[in-house]
UniProtKB/TrEMBL annotation:
This is DUF4230 domain-containing protein. Residues 207-220 have a biased composition (Basic and acidic residues). InterPro entries: DUF4230. Residues 207-227 are annotated as: Disordered. It comes from Sphingomonas naasensis.
Length: 227
């Protein structure tokens, strides 16, 4: 009986030591997590979700003016019409297409890289009140349907010209830069508020930094603790 009592006491003592050890381990892990601060990937994912809920982002718009002329000849007579068509074009990014794999965290350099969907040209929104027309060859237009054909050709050519101007490298660069700055702020500000000093780099698909991207860890890898 005495031996059983000693053994029982020893088991209780071991259980107490194990319990205290687990408690100290949990406390140590909690303190470690507290002093380590917020996880940058968690903060970035929260920012990503907020952006996706906005659906579309438009940070740049520009007004263009198309000047087009159409001509036709019939029965030895000629007619032409010139159309001056102003219109507004917006540059947007579909934020709903952003995914977790669009983010890459480089812990060694404290750098968050975001790969955006392509920039889209939306429009043109034609300013109907600002349209001006000039014509020659009134006789042919009076007795035939030439004027209607010239108008249709000018409207189509005018819209195409507005889009062509909108896709010129200069405004596209301005639109990309404006979008890039907006996205950088959307991620950098929450990181800074969480006390994380991180660099944020934003790229479009044709600018993808493949070498750096391959070295970085995606959020899913960080969560799974994979390298």
């Amino acid at each position: 009986m005495r031996r059983w009592g000693i053994a029982r006491f020893a088991l209780l003592l071991l259980a107490l030591v194990a319990t205290l050890g687990a408690g100290f381990w949990f406390l140590g892990a909690t303190v470690k997590d507290h002093f380590r601060g917020p996880d940058p990937v968690t903060v970035a994912q929260a920012s990503l979700q907020g952006l996706r809920e906005q659906n579309r982002l438009s940070t740049f718009a520009a007004r263009y003016v198309a000047v087009v002329t159409s001509r036709q000849s019939r029965l030895g007579l000629g007619a032409e019409k010139t159309l001056i068509m102003p219109g507004m074009v917006r540059y947007e990014v579909d934020l709903a297409k952003l995914q977790q794999k669009s983010l890459s965290w480089d812990a060694a350099n404290n750098r968050l890289t975001i790969l955006l969907p392509p920039l889209e040209v939306i429009g043109p929104d034609v300013d109907l009140d600002g349209i001006r027309e000039y014509s020659q060859g009134g006789l042919l237009m009076r007795f035939t349907d030439v004027e209607a054909q010239l108008d249709a050709a000018n409207r189509k050519a005018g819209q195409q010209e507005l889009i062509r101007q909108a896709r010129d490298p200069t405004p596209v660069k301005l639109a990309r830069d404006a979008t890039r700055r907006a996205i950088e702020r959307s991620f950098a500000m929450p990181l800074k508020a969480a006390g994380i000093d991180a660099k944020v780099a934003v790229y479009f698909p044709d600018e993808r930094p493949s070498e750096d991207w391959d070295r970085s860890r995606g959020p899913e890898d960080v969560v799974a603790n994979r390298y």
